[in-house]
Amino acid sequence: MVVKFKDGVQDSYPIWENLILIGSETDEEAIKIATERAKQDEGDCDGSFTWNKRPATWCFAGIRKLMSSEDFDERPTNGTEVSYIEMVVDKEEDFKKLVNGEPVLVQYIN
User: Fold this and answer.
1) Would you say 48 and 36 are in contact if contact means Cβ atoms under 8 Å apart?
2) Which of 3, 5, 56, 92 has its CA at 20 to 30 Å from residue 12's CA atom?
3) Domain that includes residue 26, residue range
4) Can you tell me whether residue 110 is helix, strand or coil?
């Protein structure tokens, strides 16, 4: 999901990557279901949504990654990995900043 501002210049693009479990028989069906589900979160909360005090709306940006569950025959339970994000930083200092929640440039892998 990406935040789109309703006024002024869009000089940044706040993004949320939501990890949602989807049950399906095929990858194509999973993408269709995931897209439909994600689009339910679009909107501006009846005009009350703001980002940094600016009127805004959430917009569906696409499905970035599709992964299969490691427990094909069982429902996910406590401890089941549902997703991961692989990324690379250039320096150990950047890694430490990332772990501490500080801004840093990362390269996402797939």
Assistant:
1) no
2) 92
3) 1-66
4) coil
Question: In this structure, what are the phi and psi dihedrals at residue 38, rounded to the nearest 5 degrees?
Answer: -65, -40
pTM over 0.85: no
Number of domains in the chain: 2
Residue 77 located in a structural domain: no
Domain membership of residue 36 (yes or no) is yes
Task: Look at residue 43 and tell me if it is in a domain.
Answer: yes
Residues 8 and 59 in one domain: yes
Joined tokens for residue 107: 């390269």
User: Does some domain include residue 72?
Assistant: no
- Count of C-beta atoms within a 10 Å radius of residue 50: 14
DSSP secondary structure letters along 4-38 = EESSS------B---------SSHHHHHHHHHHHH
Buried b / exposed e across 98-107, counting CB within 10 Å, b at 16+? Answer: eeeeeebeee
Q: What are residue 69's DSSP bridge partners? A: none
- 8 Å CB contact between 2 and 13: yes
